[in-house]
Amino acid sequence: MTAGPANVPPAETAAWFLAQEPAFHEKWMAMALAEARAAAEEGEVPMGCVVVRRTPDGAARPVGRAHNSVEALKDPTAHAEMLAITQAAAATGDWRLTDCALYVTKEPCPMCGGAVVLGRLALAAWAASDPKRGAHTVFGMFSHPGLNHRPAVLPGCGPAAALEELRGFFRARRRRDAAGREARPGSAGTEDEAFGFGKA
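The structure corresponding to this sequence follows.
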């Protein structure tokens, strides 16, 4: 277990994270992007996530870091965010991650958005929004008045190169999978296309 700020309200933590310089956010998004690259190399949907904790000395450190492992674990819940949040809870010894922010390469899906809410994370930051199934963009989960926690959000976080690289991942997968889809008449298409990143 690692020590952290005691009983810091999520809103205070969110304000602290949002007050940081762009380079601060780019550092963590670059780490998430490295995880996305690892996922792509393993044949997974290229998603990477890092959970960052505010420390008592006014710094920050990663307490969870993961990439999609759905295929490797044969587990539909093994999204990058779910795995990173689980790691963060284990590292901090508390499921209430009120002094933490989540950085992910693509906007969380509703499942992962639910984990952000339940884990009380102060901030959710992502490089690319998901116009098809984004927890916030489509479902408004992070601002829904019926939920007991509403994290701050930072969409479009990180350098433009991160977003372009993510799009490149999906373009490559789309090209690679084209023959397979043609061999399966009636296929509904890939998950990549549903995200909307496979298009130029």
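The helical segments are 10-18, 22-41, 70-73, 80-92, 110-118, 160-182, 191-195.
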